[in-house]
Amino acid sequence: MGNDAIRGDTAPEDSITIVNNASGDKVTFPILQGSCGPRVIDIRKLYGATDMFTYDPGFTATGSCESKITFIDGEAGILLHRGYPIEELAAHSDFMEVCYLLLYGELPTAGQKDKFVHAITHHTMVHEQLHKFIDGFRRDAHPMAIMCGVVGALSAFYHDSTDISDPYQRMVASYRMIAKMPTIAAWAFKYSLGQPFIYPRNNLNYAENFIHMMFATPAEDYEISPVIARALDRILILHADHEQNASTSTVRLAGSSGANPFACIAAGIASLWGPAHGGANEAVLNMLNEIGSPNRIGEFVEKAKKPDDPFRLMGFGHRVYKNFDPRARLMRESCHEVLNELGVENEPLLELAMELERIALEDEYFVQRRLYPNVDFYSGIIFKAIGIPVSMFTVLFAVARTVGWVAQWNEMVEDPNQKIGRPRQLYTGYEQRAYVPLAERG
Ligand code: ACO
Q1: pLDDT in tens, 352-395
Q2: Which residues contact 283 (CB under 8 A, 6 or more apart)?
Q3: Burial 180-189 (b: 16+ CB within 10 A, else e)
C-alpha cells in the first residue's frame, strides 16, 4: 500500500478512517506494521487531506522516524539492540562489541572486532589545543557544561569529518566521537580538581582507559581495579542506546537540518543534562542524601504524590516502561556485585534505595501509575562505589550514549525518507492586530 490518504468511502482493510463529525467527510490513512511493536498510522498526508494537524505534546503517540537499531516493549520490560536482549549483551558481550553492533547492525567477527577496537583506540587523543579550550572554563564549571562546549567545538578542530554527504567522513566522525568522549570527560573532571590532564593509553581497553584518565596522576603508577573496569564496561553497555529518547531525538532533530555531527552530539548532551533524563542519576543520589535515613522515606514518598508539589521521586517512572526497566534490574544486580567485590558492606545509600524502592512499589499511587525504578535509580550508587564523583554521573551517561546518538544520526542521514524535523503547533496566541505606537499605549 502507498502512503496516500484516501478521501471518501473506499477503505482498504489495513487502514484507519477518520470522520469529521461536522461535515461527514471521511479520510482513510494506511496502517504500517514494523517488525515488532504496535502498528503505526501513517499520517504524512493528513494536513493535505484534512487541513488539520495533530496535537501531541511530548510526542507521546508519535513515531518520528523508522529505525532498525533498538526496540523497547515498555509493557513487557524488553529492550533489544539489533534484536539481541540487553540481558544477553550485558552478560556475554563488552562495550566495544555493543558499539560495533549498534553501528553496523551485526555482532562483529573476531577480525572485525580487532579492527574496530584498534581504530577506536587510535582515535582517543584529542587535538592538543583543546587543553586551552578547557582552560577557558571556570574551575567550578559543571563537567556537563564543559562537555556541551568542548564536544560542540570539535567541529572546529576536525573539519575533515564534517561533510555529512560522505559516508567515509561520517564514519570517521563517529569513531572520533566514541573514542574521544572519555578523554574529554576525564579532562573535564581533572580540570575541576586542578590536576594535570592524563593522556589516553593504547594498552588499555575502553573502560580501563577512562578510569586511568580519571584517577591516575603523573606522580605515581595507578593500578586499575579489574572489578571496577568490568562494572564500568557493563554500565556503558546498559546506557548505550535507548531508541528515540529525548537526547537521541534532539540529535536527530539537530541533524535533520544537515548540521555537522559534532554539533548534533553537543545538542544531545545538552538534552541529556536535564534531571528528567540523564541528569536523573545525579538527582537520585542528591535525593537519597537528602532523605538521609529510612525513617524519612514516607515523608518524601508523600511529597512526590502531591499534585501541586513539583518534587518527583528521582529514578522512578519512564515514558516507555510501564513495567520494570530491564536496565534497572541489571543495574541493581551489578550494584550488589560491585559492592560485594569491593568489600563495601552495608552501604547505607544502597539500603536506603532498596527500602525506598520497596515502599514505593507497594504504594497505591506508584502501582496505579505503573511507576517503576528506571536505569538511573541504581547507577548513581555504583558510580559512587567506584569513586566517580556525583557531578560526573551524567557525563558518564553521555560517554556511553554517544554510540547510540552516533548510530541513530547515521541511520537518519542514510534514510531516504528523512526530512528536516519541523513540527507544527496549536496556536493560541493573539490573532492579527495592528501595531500600537508607543505614545498611544496606556
Ligand atoms: N514521582 C512521582 N510521580 C511521578 C513520577 C515520579 N518519579 N513520575 C511520574 N509521576 C506521575 C506524574 O505526576 C503523573 O501523575 P498524574 O497522572 O497524577 O498527573 C503520572 O505519574 C504520569 O507521569 P508523566 O509525567 O505523564 O510521565 P512522563 O512519561 O511524561 O514522564 C519521566 C516520564 C520524565 C521519566 C517521569 O517519570 C519523571 O520525571 N521521573 C523522574 C525523573 C527520572 O527518573 N528520569 C529518568 C528517566 S530514564 C532516563 O532518562 C534514562
Answers
A1: 998 999 999 999 999 999 999 998 898 888 898 888 999 999 99
A2: 275, 314, 315, 376
A3: bbbbbbbbbb
Backbone angles phi, psi at 82, to 5 degrees: 50, 35
Q: State whether the beta carbon of 329 lies less than 6 angstroms from ligand 1.
A: no
> What contacts 24+ positions apart, CB below 8 Å, involve 13-18?
16/41, 18/50
Q: Dihedrals φ, ψ of 427, to 5°?
A: -85, 130
Q: CB burial class (10 A; 0-12, 13-18, 19+) of residue 21?
A: exposed
The confidence band for 3, taking pLDDT boundaries of 50, 70 and 90, is: low
How far apart, in whole angstroms, are the C-alpha atoms of residue 21 and residue 182?
A: 57
Count of helix runs (H) and strand runs (E) in the chain: 18, 7
Alpha-carbon distance of 320 to 372, in angstroms, equals 11
Q: Cβ neighbours of residue 89 under 8 Å, at least 6 residues apart?
A: 81, 97, 98, 101, 237
Residues 349-366, buried b or exposed e (16+ Cβ, 10 A)?
Answer: bbebbbebbeebeebeeb
Ligand 1 pocket test, candidate residues 239, 302, 312, most atoms within 8 A of CB: 312
Give the residue carrying C-alpha cell 564536544.
151
Distances 129 to 59, 125, 136, 157, 261 between C-alpha atoms, Å: 41, 11, 11, 9, 20
Residues 6+ apart with CB under 8 A from 93: 101, 107, 237
pTM: 0.92
Any atom of ligand 1 within 6 Å of the Cβ of 238: no
Q: Is 276 in the pocket of ligand 1 (CB under 6 A)?
A: yes
The three grid cell numbers given for residue 57, joined into one nine-digit string: 505534546
Nearest Cα residue to atom 30 of ligand 1: 319
